[in-house]
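DM from R.C. (forwarded with permission)

"hey, sorry to bug you on a friday — could you get me a structure for this? deadline for the figure draft is monday and I only need the backbone to look sensible"
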Amino acid sequence: MTERGGSSLARAGWPVLLGSALLLLAAPVIAQQQPLPVEITADRAEMDDRRGVSTYTGDVVVIRGDMTLEADKVYVRSRDRRPYEMEAHGEPARLESPDPETGEMRIATALRIDYLLNEDRVILTDQAHVVTAAEEARGKRIVYDLETDVIEAERGEADDERVRIRIQPREDDE
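My reply, with the result:
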């Protein structure tokens, strides 16, 4: 039986070339998935590598990429010296992060902010408040996905702890 369209070696080379091209295209994506460094300034720091917990107190400022977290006290939990979660307390604690699509600043405040670094998600508890260019949300507890920009708000037990949402009209709606 004769082969059409070239040798079997030439045909076998196409998958290799295609695979190599896909690897080259994927290289920037792989580079973007590298963990961002976390820079922390505070009045006091206590690091316990055995437990994987570091405690920072006094005007704590945490910077990770474009994100800034300010609080009175921050606990950083790590595995193998890789931080995966931050628990911030303040009056209130404050997190600022630009929207990846618009660049507009998003501001989240609460008495407690849990920032899940691997999921790019924050959980705001007590006096939770989120302000974006498109909306403003208040509640007892707010879960905010920074990557997808999805906000889930919950009310508290008291009547004055109902969820409040304000949706900003788009400029072309006015």
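R.C.: lifesaver. The longest helix spans residues 8-32.
me: no worries. The beta strands are 38-41, 44-48, 53-64, 67-79, 82-98, 105-116, 121-131, 135-145, 150-154, 164-167.
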